[in-house]
From TrEMBL, chain A:
SUPFAM superfamilies registered for this protein in UniProt: PLP-dependent transferases
Domain Glycine cleavage system P-protein N-terminal: 3-442
Gene3D superfamilies: Aspartate Aminotransferase, domain 1, Type I PLP-dependent aspartate aminotransferase-like (Major domain)
Subunit description: The glycine cleavage system is composed of four proteins: P, T, L and H. In this organism, the P 'protein' is a heterodimer of two subunits.
GO biological process: glycine decarboxylation via glycine cleavage system; nucleoside metabolic process
Organism, as annotated: Thiobacillus denitrificans
Pfam families: GDC-P
E.C. numbers: 1.4.4.2
Protein name in the entry: Probable glycine dehydrogenase (decarboxylating) subunit 1
UniProt function note: The glycine cleavage system catalyzes the degradation of glycine. The P protein binds the alpha-amino group of glycine through its pyridoxal phosphate cofactor; CO(2) is released and the remaining methylamine moiety is then transferred to the lipoamide cofactor of the H protein.
Family the UniProt entry places it in: Belongs to the GcvP family. N-terminal subunit subfamily.
Automatic annotation (TrEMBL), chain B:
Keywords: Oxidoreductase, Pyridoxal phosphate
Annotated source species: Thiobacillus denitrificans
Limits of the Glycine dehydrogenase C-terminal domain: 346-449
Name this polypeptide is given: Probable glycine dehydrogenase (decarboxylating) subunit 2
Function: The glycine cleavage system catalyzes the degradation of glycine. The P protein binds the alpha-amino group of glycine through its pyridoxal phosphate cofactor; CO(2) is released and the remaining methylamine moiety is then transferred to the lipoamide cofactor of the H protein.
Amino acid sequence: MPFIPHTEEDVSAMLGAIGAASIEELFDEIPPALKTGKLKDVPDGLPEMAVARLMQERASADGFWSSFIGAGVYEHHIPAAIWQITTRGEFYSAYTPYQAEASQGTLQLIYEYQTMMTRLTGLDVSNASLYDGASALAEAVLMAVRSHKTSRRVLVPKTVHPIYRRVVDTTVKNQGIELVELAYDPTTGHTVLPADPGSFAGLVIPQPNFFGVLEDVHAMTDWAHDKGALAIALVNPTTLAVLEAPGQWGSRSNQGGGADIAVGEGQPLGAPMASGGPYFGFMCCRQAFVRQMPGRIVGRTVDLDGKPGFTLTLQAREQHIRRSKATSNICTNQGLVVTAATQYMALLGPQGLAKVASVSHAGTVALAEKLAAIPGVTRAFTSPYFHEVVLKLNDNARDVLRALRAQGILGGLDISGWYPELGHAILVCVTETKTAADLDHYAQHMERILSKRREAPPCAYKN
Amino acid sequence: MLIFDHSRPGRTATAQLPAAGGSLDDLPANLRRRDAPALPEVSELDVVRHYTRLSQKNFSIDTQFYPLGSCTMKYNPRACNSLAMLPQFLARHPASPDETGQGFLTSMFELQEMLKDVTGMAGVSMAPMAGAHGEFAGVAMIRAYHDARGDTARREMIVPDAAHGTNPASAVMCGYTVKEIPTDASGSIDLAALRAAVGPQTAGLMLTNPSTLGVFEKTIADIQKIVHDAGGLLYYDGANLNAILGKVRPGDMGFDVIHMNLHKTFSTPHGGGGPGAGPVGVAERLLPFMPIPLVLNENGFYRLATEADLPQSIGRMSANMGNAGVLMRAYVYARLLGREGMHRVAEYATLNANYLMARLREAGFDLAFPERRASHEFIVTLKKLKDTTGVSAMDFAKRLLDYGFHAPTTYFPMLVPECLLIEPTETESRETLDGFVEAMITIKREAETSPDLVKGAPYSLPVRRLDDVRAARELDLAYKPTA
């Protein structure tokens, strides 16, 4: 029996100790009419060898691609050590560290993670992580509303990832919170701050924004604070190696200014893309808001002998204590992925992370220049960008991407559906994993495809 | 020693750095970082050794027995990890076209179908990333259903007092008020209280069955009728699904919406606190409201459903498709077990629980519900021991750590005083269970003869009992070097 160690002798001895005649008798409190017959859609069990073969076939079918898709999930090199250590049974199969004395490994690791995140974001405190970047943003919106005395409105720029905005909407819509969309400048790709926003609890500030465009985070932070609202930074952790830390945003960051909350997707820190997860969302904030923060938090304390140790703390915020009055219903932190991320940050260090960010950015600039030199390709926005760029095509984006795919290239993300005003637009990203030859390969095929389609347009009836 | 204590200016794990740097000259100076983040500057060996050593300070299923009630700490088969981590699966970007992920999507679709079958539900969405996330999705669907019918006065969610804390917290996040109902002396829902609680304001009832008290709600048919007759929907908290897998299905019990914890029933790792996966299953009438994405099969081509496919969906729960890699592990587990294996899960989990309960009763421990069958878990109450020796459930739990066993769940559910909620799971052998019973007996004897010994436990772990009050009062949440 897979993963069940019982011998026949065990079963009869155990039933004897219980005083039952059969295993079935142990279910005598379940009304017989409810009992299940045979399962019909679960196939017969397979030995590991057969399942391995099946999964290897499926993996091979999916194959490897030369991907230039970013949009919140980035293909970075993951050092071999990270997942070998992360999948050690002592991390992999450990429970939530409620029994602190038996979980010092996980707890110390989270404390180190929290420390690294506060240093990356320039804020005072970090929680032990949330589900992913989008859900972390939703929690930040809720936190801003809890922290504000009167307003239940939060301003969310259209330059925030469209799916993030939907996740926020799903999460907060039943709590009487109003999300106000802010437009962007069609030339620069910057968020436009409204002249008369009314009262609001928070402003979401994406940096870089979904288009890769660098927002004027200092002006936005000051503006939110001037209106009595919280500044919520939505940031990519890799870029924080070289871009200003949210805690330093605004002109008054040395007087307790700066962003109040920083959230984002932790995936770039050592989590494989893996079709969508598991990743983790990070959340940091200023000390003043720590009791409004959702999720687990680890603190350092001492034991009975005065020896330092680590434990979950401020649990009075959480659902298992406060129940209906908790700051959130969240129970999980994405512990295992945080285990990987902590090692990633330690292995890369400040120099390594800055190098990853700068090489990725330089690659994006190089590719954008190559592609924008091709007739029919232009940059959508004039502003400085980081690590990711929107390109407009004078041809159907979906068809062009499909033609690139035939060459093994995933040329970017078609964002025309989300932003029809941009026409045929693709979001393109380069990371340090791409070589100069990869960029040339992409640009050559783009040029060939566009010119071929221009000279011999596909038959209108074929589609 | 913290990783920061190993840090030396200028030291790097050079092999992990890109060979050349890149120019940032095109960026506006005021948006660039002034001071580099103070991450550790260490070698690769420093990192490997430090985190390997940290791992050794943990209890885990791979090293210890975890009789942790309501948490289903069963063996996490290694194949689930290695096959979910095949390089092509890991390399796939979530926004890649469906054409480039048919292997992945086929697996996801098949898992979805298997989950439908084992739960008896009409549809399953695997978007939620944890149990509480699934609860939120489930309650949001209940609300969307009532709202779509213009039945907007239903704003109250009924929750038994024994429920997990996430139940009331999830209901509140969906804009509901919570009404608690009591449990009777036999551990079942008080039907009279339920009848009195329902009305035109009732959105639904959230129920765990078997309950967190470790007993099956025998009157589920009545409960179902009372709630449905009042116009409410029935929510199944799948925390204890392991107890009934392949025996009785939530759909057949009349539940309208359920969530499953794949990190419990489908043996994906707990990972020191996550990631989990909390798929939701729904009855026919909630199908239009399922969270997206879910996987559709169009004549053998698998694709992710979008807003266009489910215009009434409660929406998206994550930026991508939930914790995809966790779902892959659950899929591999399901294929290894197969149909017969699914049926066996509840059988042997229940056999182990009842055996352990019988042995502990025989050893003189008090059961919270001695007249009832254990489901896959049961409750021991140490109230008498506490009254006579001063040794609490917490002390007892900490002493178990010294004997190499993870503590059972303590002080939950809150209505049983000094409780230990014990769940052995199906993957533990009789010898392990016997060893646990021996430790329990030994500690009970210690409590009776030298209570201070037990109150001071643990002694053999990396730290002794920690000062939680100080941790909360003198917050130290991030390392700051003393200058």
